[in-house]
Write a structure and sequence with these properties.
By secondary structure, the chain is mainly alpha-helical. 71% of the residues lie in helices and 1% in strands. It comes from Roseibium limicola.
Length: 516
Amino acid sequence: MDTVLAGVSDAFTLINITYIAMGVFMGIMVGAIPGLNGPMAIAVAVPLTYYMSPLGSIAFLIGINKGGTYGGSVAAILLNTPGSPESTSTAFDGYPLVKKGKGLKALKMALYASITGDIFSDIVLFTVAAPLAIVALRMGPPEMAAVFAFSLTIIAGLSGKSILRGLLAAILGAYISCVGLDIETAQPRLTMGLSDLIEGVPIIPMTIGLLALSEILIQIETTLLGRQTDSGQYRVFGKDIPKEDRTVSWVEYKSCLRTIVRSALIGTGVGAIPGIGAIVAGFLGYGAAKRASKNPEEFGTGKLEGVAATEAANSAVVGANLIPLLALGIPGSLSAAILIGAFLMHGVDPGPLIFQEHGQLIYGIFAAMFMANWINFGIANLGLRLFAMVVSVPKGIIHPIVVVLCIAGAFANGNAMFSVAVMMVFAVLGYFMRKLDFSFATFIIGFALGGTFEQSVRQSVILFKDSPWTLLTHPIVMLFVALTIFAVWRILNGQMSVKKVVAVAPDSPSVSETKS
């Protein structure tokens, strides 16, 4: 109990509250700009936290994550262009509400649902992570190797349209994690004679290049080729807009509460499973609300319940993503994978031992997460007019600023131009990954898990090389091996079924043919 109280006390200091507020504000601002998102902002911001305390650093980055999740809904509602992918289904009802003159009401409902979902998943994180870590401490190397294998399989299978692309991305990430000193012989491997790679590929410049700079390259290309599409702009603010169209009443919130709780449950469950992510959670929450509604035909025409369903689900993923990260050392999402870099930068190794070795820090993070929800609520409410203006900032202003921040962030990682070069290399790789529809989340999670997975496998080989059949007496190992095989079979079976459906489907007439 003393550890818990000490952690909570650390979180409620003025400097950490300031860091949280700065993170939330930055997250909403970045999330509101179409094409930018929370993980990108976190990747760029990690080097800025080098001189912060461990708690201040993580609190700042979590503030960005929470703010960015809500910020994505601002552009989705006002421009029908999601600021981040997880807010895609928010636009289904948010933008029609704007066209009806109820844009401010939609923004506020998105905020209330987002905060509710966030609080719900944080409570689950607080109650589940520590007991799960205790269970994980009883696992040996073979159990952990089996868990990691299962996690990588699930992540690869759920990462996109192609299981092959997902698997290749995970393998490539794990392969790049092998750069550096061999964990057994301490001999350099895959370093290409570069002394800067002795400690491995630095994760911070890598993520900045993959996520932020590659996206800027894509956006510049889109601008040069003239592929941009402009959405109509509608007035959202004004005293002449009726009050009932500018606010969400308690009755309206209460009418959506069942949907919000359902979506929060869905988002929490999805977030606790590595690799699925907030995009899937948002669509699942929206779909569940539509199926449960007495008037499903109203969805997509400007229904508050549709906005609430998506935002509660995708926000609930934020806290739940940290359950596998803190308890098992397995990042549940792209944002969680980037947070590993921040933890390691401050000498903290996520995993089962984190509650024993850094208990005060973890309970401080829990308190900071809870505080961040209310700070997010306050900043978003007070700054809605400002955030609504951000969505229309010209890309010609945004791009140079982001590029400068990327270079500065990469250089801050060791104060060396080598880090900038690493960022550039992975920016080019990220550009082609985007073009070929490879998953960044799978790649980065594969990179983050690669070293630990290799260590677990090697330790298992050393322990059981003389009697490998004794692994059959380890029920957890056999359980996860069976789950991995079953997951591979289901994924491959699903891919084959889709191909068969496509192969036998008759050619449908085009729209023009139908009209003629």
